[in-house]
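Dear support,

I submitted the protein below through the web form. The confirmation email said the job was done, but the results page showed an empty box. After a refresh the structure appeared. I'm attaching both so you can tell me whether what I see now is the final result or a partial one.
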Amino acid sequence: MNRLKTFFWLCSGANRTILNNCPSESSKYVGIGATIFFTGLFAALAGGYALYTVFDNYWLAIFFGLVWGLMIFNLDRFIVSSMRKNGQPAKEFLQAVPRLILALVISIVIARPLELKIFEKEINSEITAMIQEDMAAKELVVKERFQETRNRLSAEIQTLKDEIAMKTQSRNDLRRIAREEADGTGGTMKRNAGPIYRIKKADADRVEAELAELIATNTPLIKEKEQALAEWNGREKAELAAMEESQLTGLASRLEALDRLTVKSVAINIANWFVMLLFLVVETAPIFVKLVSPRGPYDYVLKTEEYGFEAFHYEDLAKVNTSIKKRSSKLTDEEIEYVSGKLQLGLDKS
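What the results page shows now:
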């Protein structure tokens, strides 16, 4: 138990010698040290998970996660241990503001990767939807690139076929008219109206010949354009088949998926904020404990120790100043004697 207490004292950045002489402060600094330790532990877990999504390697993630956790632990320890209780709440709060801002940033950095882990199942489902949306967007781009040419070829083929259909309909109509003229059911309504029948039969034969010529002309064109259309469709299918699903497994993709989830779901958004606030409270707790707690024996003893070193410093400065003044005075006397000697020598010569 004593070893655990000593370890948490070390984590708090407190002076263990002073704490041994201030048993009433022990629990407070054990709590502060434990909070700093677990903040560093959470930072290591969060950093390891975040880096695993980047490197996809357990050993690298463990190594860099530990480095990250130790860095956050050391930073938190410095933030708390550098705060001093001087009995002036306003001044203490102003000193704590930069530390609180830094703690806020640290809590956000720690909380974000852990949020990704907490909502991992929901994020994976959202990433699947993102992959499908990305594939649909890519397919749309490919189809739009082929659509214009495909529409043009289809329209040209349809035009050629319509020409044949229209000519075929015209021939059929003329044949029907000639037949009705021959049997007296149409036209002049007289059977065996030879001259008129022959005229109408000639019109039908002429259109028949034009139809045969049009079929001979358009059929190769239709086949050519149908073949071009089939090749164009084949190229489109090949490009669509060659497309691969996006591998949205990186950290940025998971962050984007979490942001989309918070927009879609109020429950996830609230839970996300609660997780963020939880880590914010954990990260700033040691600072607030230092702020709201009254000055205790540890603070007084620490102030005395620091004041003692400060007094020694000023004493050393005073000694140095005194020494400098003495040397300055001594040099001045020597200079006076030297000048006097020179003057006396000059008088003797004269």
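Response: this is the final, complete result; the empty box was a page-load delay. Residues 134-242 form one domain.
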